[in-house]
UniProtKB/TrEMBL annotation:
This is Diketogulonate reductase-like aldo/keto reductase. The lineage of its organism: Bacteria, Bacillati, Bacillota, Bacilli, Bacillales. Keywords: NADP, Oxidoreductase. InterPro entries: AKR, Aldo/ket_reductase_CS, NAD(P)_OxRdtase_dom_sf, NADP_OxRdtase_dom. The keyword Nuclease does not apply. It comes from Cohnella phaseoli.
């Protein structure tokens, strides 16, 4: 199947999620976020990933409304933060997020991290929000296999998405295989290795395909079937990150990139959430 910027994956409930999106973590509320979202929508992106923690949900909503792109054409993800977890708190947190976004619903609502002793009741709230139609799909973020198994032992609606740190230095093969078996869509945050784009193999492949190292990494995720949400606030970089649909990595190059794995995290370990 030929991938395009309009390509989607089908989640467990039939919802279509774009394969490529824009992440807005650490983008300042106001002009920085609004300009980034506008640039992305103008470049053809139809997925924006934000969170309560990011403090820029209002800017995301303003930019989408200003873009002229119909709301139903944009897939909006947001997340409940750790200090908002628990059943009642999560219900209230979702309503606050929707108010800041200026939207009647979110396309995807995630638990940001697996807070021990809270994520099950938090997820029960997500199920309620889903059944009320306030969110079109639900899932988790930064959940390891043990968290998923524990959650699936009691939940009524299986998580549709697991958003985790993933890149060539952290390929998450066991987690990826588990999620694929369960029909849970893996989404990669920090796909560009926190800007560490000077790895010799990635630079070599960039030369081979006439692409940038970032484009090689994004294409690698897409060919694996992983949704990816590279973050940038610069319009030219946002457009560049979307210019990945006119080439295909050869199978041996995908394998070579897989071989870079060091189980190296740039973010926190989900088994040790202390924030």
């Amino acid at each position: 199947m030929k991938l395009t910027i309009d390509s989607t994956v089908e989640l467990l409930n039939g919802t279509e999620m774009p394969r490529l999106g824009l992440g807005v973590w650490r983008a300042e509320d106001g002009a920085e976020t609004e300009n980034a979202v506008l640039a992305a929508l103008q470049a053809g992106y139809r997925s924006i990933d934000t969170a309560s923690l990011y403090g820029n949900e209002a800017s995301v909503g303003r930019a989408i409304r200003a873009s002229g792109v119909a709301r139903e054409k944009v897939f909006v993800t947001t997340k409940v933060w750790n200090d908002e977890q628990g059943y009642d708190n999560t219900i209230a947190a979702c309503h606050r997020s929707l108010e800041r976004l200026g939207m009647d619903y979110a396309d995807l609502y995630l638990i940001h991290w697996a807070v021990v002793g809270k994520y099950k009741e938090t997820y029960r709230a997500l199920e309620e929000l889903y059944e009320q139609g306030l969110v079109k799909a639900i899932g988790v973020s930064n959940f390891n296999i043990t968290h998923l198994e524990d959650l699936m032992g009691s939940c009524r609606i299986k998580p549709m998405v697991n958003q985790v740190e993933m890149h060539p230095l952290l390929t998450q093969k066991r987690l990826f295989a588990f999620c694929r078996k369960e029909g849970i869509q893996l989404v990669s945050w920090r796909p560009l290795m926190q800007g560490r784009l000077d790895h010799p193999l990635i630079v070599q492949l960039a030369g081979k395909y006439g692409k940038t190292p970032a484009q090689i990494l994004i294409r690698w995720h897409l060919q694996l079937g992983v949704v990816t949400i590279p973050k940038s606030s610069r319009a030219e970089r946002i457009r560049e990150n979307a210019d990945v649909f006119d080439f295909v990595l050869e199978p041996e190059d995908v394998v070579a990139i897989d071989g870079l794995n060091e189980n190296r995290r740039f973010g926190k370990d989900p088994d040790h959430v202390d924030f």
